[in-house]
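Our preliminary data section would be incomplete without showing what the modeling component actually yields. Below, a chain of 221 amino acids is followed by its predicted structure, encoded as tokens that our downstream tools consume directly.
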Amino acid sequence: MEQVELIEDYPSNLAKMLEQDEIDVGLIPIAATQKFSEWNIVGDFCIGTEGEVASVCIFSEVPMEAIEEIVMDYQSRTSVALARILLKEYWRKEVKITDAVNDSFRAGIKGNKAALVIGDRALEQRQHSKYIYDLGLAWKEHTGLPFVFAAWISKKELPKEFIREFNEAQKQGIENIAAILEDFNYSSYDLVKYFEENIRYCLDEQKHLAITTFLQKLKEL
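Predicted structure:
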């Protein structure tokens, strides 16, 4: 921590900060790397999933075939890009795409109008929507691969010793998730299940392949 100034924000804002050289490394949506001429993945961990992710979903009152419009969450470029890829390739469906501008967009999930919601708001929305289309699960069924929503990205080489310590710090946190969550009171979803089962952190060979596959599909959109 003596080497780090920690800045907390949602993913798309962190991507803008990295783009403008306001931060050295950020937990950045994978789709945002398209804006960088050069970039590096830092360390051995990510925010990924190997199936159902629970917190990145299209919510609707009607089945997918009846959806006419989807409002896209503004907090993560990767989630929006993934939704567009899956609509084209997996569900093979054309819909009107609208970008949300603030948190009130969830109130518009009515009739044939659905919404892509991410994060804790998605975990809360699970209690209210009749139809839930999990993007991590849909990607797995479509490609057979895990998915990486975000990774630690830098536009420049960082010292090897820093990366080693950075990895060790994350490893300690991941190994102590249950203890960390003891002080959290959250009724919308089982957080131990979420952080230990839905989210997968190890940036292994399959996840690197998933990143490459996703970025290629993104270019073809």
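Strands lie at 25-29, 40-49, 56-60, 69-72, 96-99, 113-118, 131-134, 147-154, 200-202. The longest strand covers residues 40-49. Preliminary results of this kind motivate Aim 1 of the renewal.
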